[in-house]
Design brief:
alpha/beta; Rossmann fold; globular; 18% strand; eight-stranded mixed sheet; 260 residues
Length: 260
């Protein structure tokens, strides 16, 4: 279904019954990124997945976006759906949106899972993301597919799972250029590491041990700044750890949610 919020429309899907769980995907993906988690979650939870602004079947307005704006998108979505409390699961960009939301709207998240994400931009963020924006605008998203898959998955996994590479590759390819560029502008500016101490809800931080985009060292910094959080470094996984090591990811996720 499509929900009007914050001047745009967000595409979302709701499945299962129980306490609310909201899932927020990576840049250049869509809500289907979470398919490997659905079977275990919908047994016990009412799961909301949505396409972030600029992605999937949601609106993709031109211009730079901000993480605060995307947090407001989510807040409007919650208001339309009557969600007062929810667990949050965010990977990469979804984790950044979650951190921003938790700081702006304290008390809504019952717990928070931050996977393969960051809370502080690297020194070369403007140059790196600017380059990817230029590539997308000048050559289209196709030009980013192979390099992105190489960052997101380990070489053995890519070789062993051509079907997954084809499916995720199509998601990258089909991401609107305006949406990709707008979100790149937002995540290139993230800088909330020092404020994470303000967040007061249980948290689980997960990261693939071979994630070079949002590396384990950043996960350790997030963990150190989130009071009482748990940290899991997932072996043999790169950036999309929920896909590459879904069994390990799902086990950690369900055990954490059951405790909180």
């Amino acid at each position: 279904m499509r929900i009007s919020t914050n001047g745009i429309e967000l595409n979302c899907v709701i499945e299962g019954e129980g306490p609310w769980v909201t899932m927020s995907h990576s840049l250049a993906c869509n809500l289907s990124m979470w398919d490997p988690q659905m079977q275990v979650l919908t047994k016990h939870y009412k799961v909301l997945r949505f396409d972030t602004r600029g992605h999937g079947a949601s609106s993709a307005p031109a211009g730079a976006y901000t993480l605060e704006q995307m947090a407001d998108d989510v807040h409007g979505l919650f208001a339309e759906l009557g969600i007062k409390r929810t667990h949050w699961i965010g990977l990469s960009m979804g984790g950044m949106i979650g951190e921003t939301y938790a700081l702006k709207y304290p008390g809504v998240f019952q717990s928070m899972v931050l996977a393969d994400t960051t809370s502080r931009r690297p020194p070369n963020a403007a140059e790196m993301w600017g380059g990817r924006i230029r590539t997308a605008r000048e050559q289209g998203m196709e030009a980013l597919v192979e390099s992105t898959l190489e960052r997101w998955f380990t070489a053995p996994y890519r070789k062993a799972h051509p079907d997954v590479m084809a499916r995720i590759g199509d998601d990258i390819r089909n991401t609107p250029v305006a949406g990709f560029a707008g979100c790149c502008e937002a995540i290139a500016k993230i800088d909330v590491l020092d404020r994470l101490k303000e967040i007061d809800c249980p948290a689980l931080v997960m990261v693939g041990d071979q994630d070079h985009g949002t590396p384990p060292e950043m996960a350790r910094q997030i963990h150190a700044n989130l009071r009482g959080s748990d940290l899991l470094i997932i072996p043999d996984a790169a950036h999309l750890s929920n896909v590459e090591q879904s069994e390990v990811f799902n086990r950690a996720l369900t055990e954490f949610l059951a405790r909180n």
